[in-house]
Amino acid sequence: MTYQKMLRPVGADNGEEEMDRMLEQVSQQIEEIIISTIEKMVFAEVNHCDYTDPEKIENMIAASLALHEPFKKNFSLAIERKLAFDMADSLFSAYEKEVNEELVNDTVLEMLNITVGAVSTALFNGNHDFKLGLPKICDRFPHDTSMHIYHFKVDGLSLLFGSPDLRLFLKHGEDI
Amino acid sequence: MKSVVIVDDSTTARMCIKTCLENAGYQKTVFYEAQNGEEAITIIKNNDIVPDLVITDLNMPGMNGISLLKRLKSSPKYTNIPVVIITSAGSPNLKEELLSIGALAVLNKPISPASFSEILNDLSKDVETSWG
């Protein structure tokens, strides 16, 4: 089912239960996109999990990317340092390029950029133009209570993806 | 020897594009890398080349992909260079606009060797046709 088709029935005729069901479907769709995008990029198995140790989050390499249109909100990504180095290494090893902090950060930024592009393309289903900013590295995983956080494990190491509140996408969708 | 200019502000993206091109048959090729449109134009001018292909990201600090495409297409010397746009934020309207300006193709990230192969095959057919 496409996202736009899922949006249409949301409104006065549908109750909170229906909304929850749709939010769950959107959430599932986003999770699948994140997994498939990252797996394609780094050839590693990505598994969903329910929780990430807060102490680990403090030491992750984090990045954020702004969605400017159709509304202003941020996406974010955080990857455990060793995992980020391993991912960059797997990408650059063919070129015998020494992986340093700069290249690792670049890999994290590009991973966020590609993932947000794929998620946004799916969420707006080609019916709505969207505009992204440039990804940037942050001191810590940027998130707030309204964000929907996805937790993943790759080779036993943690990866987090933060999406704007899914209700925003639904609310916005009603205006389309 | 073929020459290809890869334009992306991300080292990772440039490396992935290069790998895809090599896997798609571009082994004997000189690859030039630029971080934005201005740098790409400087490289083209300084090396006095008319590249066989320019592959550019859309969203970059400095001159972006759409401005680079317009610059190349407005120059009699460079107007025939095939330009492939690679973007993480593709929408049908944007794709249409880029194709109307003269982009050969618009690909969504993440790219794969398969998506490149298709375009490169079309490209060689066009070259064969135009050369008779």
Question: What can you see in these coordinates?
Answer:
The complex is a heterodimer of chains A (176) and B (132). Chain A has 176 residues and is of the alpha+beta class. Chain A is built from 6 helices and 7 strands, in the order ααβαββααββββα. In chain A, helix 2 (16-42) packs across helix 5 (101-124) and helix 4 (81-92) crosses helix 5 (101-124). Residues 1-12 of chain A have low confidence and may be disordered. Chain B is globular and about 30 Å long. The A-B interface holds A 37, 40-41, 88, 91-92, 94-95, 97, 102-103, 106-107, 109-111, 113-114, 116-118, 120-121, 124, 126, 128-132, 134 and B 9-13, 15-16, 19, 59-61, 87-94, 108-110, 112.
Give a nutshell description of this structure.
Chain A has 176 residues and is an alpha+beta fold. Chain A contains 6 helices and 7 strands; from the N terminus they run H-H-E-H-E-E-H-H-E-E-E-E-H.
Jot down its keywords:
heterodimer, A: 176 residues, Chemotaxis protein chec, 23% strand, globular, disordered N terminus, B: 132 residues, alpha/beta, Rossmann fold, 5 strands, disordered C terminus
Annotate the secondary structure layout:
The complex is a heterodimer of chains A (176) and B (132).
Chain A (H helix, E strand, L loop, with lengths): L2 H5 L8 H27 L3 E4 L4 H5 L1 E10 L3 E8 H12 L8 H24 L6 E2 L3 E3 L9 E7 L2 E7 L2 H10 L1
Antiparallel strand pairs in A: 1-6, 2-3, 2-4, 2-5, 3-7, 6-7
Helix pairs in contact in A: 2-5, 4-5
Chain B lengths: L1 E6 L3 H13 L5 E6 L2 H10 L6 E5 L7 H9 L9 E5 L4 H10 L3 E4 L4 H18 L2
Parallel strand pairs in B: 1-2, 1-3, 3-4, 4-5
Under CATH, the homologous superfamily of chain A reads: CheC-like
Count of individual helical segments of chain A: 6
Class based on secondary structure composition and strand pairing of chain B: alpha/beta
Largest sheet features of chain A: 7 strands, antiparallel
DSSP helix fraction of chain A? 40-55%
The gyration radius over C-alpha positions of chain B equals 14 Å
Class derived from helix and strand content of chain A:
alpha+beta
Distance between the termini of chain B: 21 Å
Q: Which residue ranges of chain B are poorly predicted, with pLDDT under 50 across at least 5 consecutive positions?
A: 128-132
The share of residues in extended strands of chain A comes to: 15-25%
Quickly give the CATH architecture of chain B.
3-Layer(aba) Sandwich
- Could you give the order of the helices and strands of chain B? EHEHEHEHEH
Largest interface: A-B, 31 and 23 residues
Mean pLDDT of chain B: 89
How many distinct domains of chain B?
1
CATH topology of chain B, which one? Answer: Rossmann fold
CATH class of chain B: Alpha Beta
CATH architecture of chain A: 3-Layer(aba) Sandwich
What does the largest sheet of chain B look like?
5 strands, parallel
> How many separate domains of chain A?
1
